[in-house]
Amino acid sequence: MTGIDTETLLDHLLEHNWVVLKKALPQDTLTALREEALALWQSGDFRSARVGRSGENLKSEIRNDRIHWLDEENLSDVQQRYLDFLNDIKDLLNRELFMGIASFEGHYAVYPEGSFYKAHLDRFQDADERVMSCILYLNKDWQHDFGGQLRLHLDEQMLDVEPEAGTIVLFYSDKVLHEVLPANQERLSLTGWFRRRSLRDLY
Ligand code: OGA
Ligand code: MN
Predict the structure, then answer these.
(1) Which CATH number does the domain housing residue 125 bear?
(2) pLDDT tens, position by position, 2-18
(3) pTM of full prediction above 0.85
(4) Structural domain harbouring 110
(5) Least C-beta-crowded within 10 Å: which of 38, 115, 126, 153?
(6) How far is the CA of 119 from the centre of ligand 2 (A)?
């Protein structure tokens, strides 16, 4: 897999439940994703993010980012390239960690100035499909004092990840409590989840 040390990725995930990959994605793909996100944002093609499985709850005191879902039936060229890249990660996780990932869902997210997402898990109580969260950041030259760090609440410590372009974070959706600290600059990402078939469908 280009740009990724697969053994380190697997070891780190197994030991810590999360891993950060830097500069794993080809630069031209990264740039094109960033430009696409900005173009969609400027054309107003985003909506308020919601909380909960069926997305019925607009809770701006919990999160106030804006999102644009990728449509798997209608992917742009660059979205397809990114999903091809993720497909290699999916194969690795299935082969080595038996994760049983069957699909991916994802959205662009924009955190306008002042936005945040309070601490949460990505697996909902009534839905067990999400197994691995995967976030790609799209912010060129992000400065620490812009805020907007992804904060992972780990057993032994807290870990803050800068949302710098090209950084990818993977973590177990049901295990790692995390939040987005208030961003005082517009913050872009492509957030997604590797999903398995629901265990509820097996019984
Ligand atoms: C989410 C989320 C984190 C980030 O969308 O569920 O936690 O850093 N995003 O954007
Ligand atoms: Mn989350």
Answers:
(1) 2.60.120.620
(2) 678 999 999 999 999 99
(3) yes
(4) 6-49+63-197
(5) 126
(6) 8
